[in-house]
Amino acid sequence: MRRGFPLLMTGLALAMMADLAIAQEQGINLPKSIEAGSVFSVRCSGSGEGTVYIVGPGQVLRRDVQLGSTTSFPAGSLTHAGRYLAILSASGSSSDAGSNPVSSFDVVPASEPAKISFLARPSRLPVDIHDAITGAVYLFDTYQNLILTPMPVSFDLTNPSGAGQKRSVTTRDGAAWTAMDSSAHDGTDHFVASAGDVSSARAVVQVAGDACNLRMSVTPSDGKLVVATDPVRDCSGNAVPDGTIVTFTEAANGSKTTVDVPLKRGIAKVEMPEVQGAIFTVASGVSLGNQVRWEK
Amino acid sequence: MICCAAFGLTACLAAAQPAVRVEPSQPQGQQALADQTRSAAIADYLGAWKSMSEALEQNRPGLLDRDFTGSAKDELSATIAQQASLGMRSRYRDLAHDLQFVFYSPDGLSIEMTDDAEYEVQVFVHDKPLAAQRMHARYVVVLTPGAARWGVRVLQASPQP
Q: How far is B110 from chain A (nearest CA, A)?
């Protein structure tokens, strides 16, 4: 019994040393940074068999491995950018959560953009307004990862005549934006954002602004007066769209008559009672036109 | 329990909350970010971490519905499906967030911020603990408005600059 006890202790000590040696030998090595979707390898030191777990919020992988060798993961295995843990669990080990070899690494987005998320606002607006059209983009790689390295983005706003505005903006944290003026002429402009080989286009409809230099004339017709505007245009000469409301007012003998008329074929026209000395005024939106006093 | 006995329930609950710091800078963009919008975005983002943690721990993708949208929701849902098929689950406990608003889109339809986050990850296989690790990562987050709250559309950790 006395001889057996030291032998038992020696055996236990040797077993513990062997366990310690195995724990020290086991390890997991892989690059600190991997491009999304690319081939990568994990080297697991030690001997015997084990399992590698790759864990992140974006993806989880499990792979049986031979310790002491390198295991290759094919292209497309790990596609979501983020920070991951690589954990090695040796087969048959009774190690707890604190002793499995763990290594952290990053999966970074591919460097070439594959998709542009392009928000252009508004889709319809009046002509000739400063910084009224805005475009914002986020750049993504082929696996929907936001590309965080700075990249040039080109914004082009082109009107039907071919004239346009161009801006080049470098992304910051994957985003870029610009603001552009609406052009002087109405029509549908093409707003294009491009980066690398990808682009995205939006249509921006520009309509005439408020009426400008609004003028009317008054002519008698069968005992009534026909009040009509000249063709209504904005300050840049664009025809104000049909349907825009023009308000005529006739003031006579202390009373006032107001009529709202939509533009039709570019002009507004209405019949009003003929009253000597009546004063006619015209307005559209915030624009006031001329004033006419009716004397037969 | 020891914590509760020693410091009282309030202290315990406070300890369970991550430390949050917000950089005071204004994001790039055409318009200023209103204080109310800023506060709502922060609260909804922190709520999203809680949802993510619960969803990944319980392998229940439905817990993501309130706080995640688009590709972020798809990715996390896929991760949960992978975990479930491998008999795994993971517990993410956020310890600290250092937030900075970096972009507020001119149309007001997206907010981007960065988060220097500290968190702890515990991984379980068939309910046995596999590993535990304290992590530090810079997250880039894109939020877009939903019906009642900001939803996380992009949640992506990147190498520290």
A: 9
